[in-house]
Amino acid sequence: MVPKPTAFDISIADMKTAKSPESLRRKVQNAQTTPRANNLSREDLTQKLDNAASRKQAQNSDRVAKAAAAVEHAQAVARSTRAGLQSKETNAKQQIANKLSSAQSAREAGLAKQNAQVEAHLGDVKARHLASSQELGAPGSRDIQQKLAAAEQRRQAQIAEQKTKLGNHFAKVEEIKNNPSPNGKSAAEVKAKLNAASERRAAQEADLKNKLAGRQAHAESVRQNKRNNKGARSESTDDLIEAQRLVGSNKIPRG
Predict the structure, then answer these.
(1) 85-93 contacts: CB < 8 A, separation 24 or more?
(2) Is 3 a member of any domain?
(3) Is 91 part of a structural domain of the chain?
(4) How many CA atoms lie within 13 A of 135 on its CB side?
């Protein structure tokens, strides 16, 4: 079933006598007393628009000036920072180059001194060997000469190997000098490597000195053995001569 419509009784008289709210009345009064924008003249509107455009342009100019000042300050800071970094990098490279040059000079001087000592020691050994050979004669000199020749060959091989290693090292030093940070390494790492190389060089020099001392002791032992052998041969030769003299004179002592 369709519901029946409901009818309401609305009194028109009550609507005519009803009062509007106080807030609505105030809004109507304000609207009636306040002049509208449509009442402004063209000159007033133009003046307002010009003032607004001037304020906007001034604000934009102020913003542009502040942005330009900020950019200029940032560029000045960047230039100063780059100059400081370049100065530090240049000083670090110069220090590294000076240290590498000093280390190379010290190594070359040490190697020259070491070679001179080895040559002097070898000359001394050869002179002693020649004197021993002249004193002792031919027997046993061939073995000593062979041993000395073998020792000389080993010494030459060690010197050649050491020169090769030093040549490679100097090549690396030159490469590092031309390009101090080929792998992005810092000056501290390069300094640590130089210190390690110096320690290895000192250990090699100590090892070589020990070997030279051992060879010198061995040569001295060989010379002492030769002297003892010579004394023994001299005593046996004297006994033989005395026996022959006794036999010739028939004065052989009887037991």
Answers:
(1) 92/180, 92/187, 93/180
(2) no
(3) yes
(4) 17
Handedness of CA 149, 151, 157, 162 (dihedral sign): negative
Q: How far apart are CA 195 and CA 204, in angstroms?
A: 14
Side-chain half-sphere of 208: how many Cα atoms within 13 Å? 21
Task: For the chain, give the number of residues.
Answer: 255
Nearest Cα residue to 169 out of 125, 106, 86: 106
Q: List, in sequence order, every beta strand (DSSP E) within the chain.
A: none
Q: Which amino acid is at 127?
A: A
pTM: 0.29
Total domains present in the chain: 1
CA angle 128, 132, 137 (to 5 degrees): 150
d(CA 158, CA 101): 25
Asked if residues 162 and 200 have their Cβ atoms less than 8 Å apart, the reply is no
Looking at the chain, the whole-number percentage of residues with pLDDT higher than 70 is: 69
Residue range of the domain that includes 193:
65-177+189-248
In a domain, 35, yes or no: no
Give the burial string for 23-46 (b: 16+ CB within 10 Å, else e): eeeeeeeeeeeeeeeeeeeeeeee
CB atoms within 10 A of CB 219: 20
Is pLDDT larger for residue 204 or for residue 230?
204
Residue type at position 143: D
The answer to whether position 88 is within a domain reads yes
Rounded average pLDDT over 139-144: 63
In whole angstroms, how large is the CA radius of gyration of the chain? 56
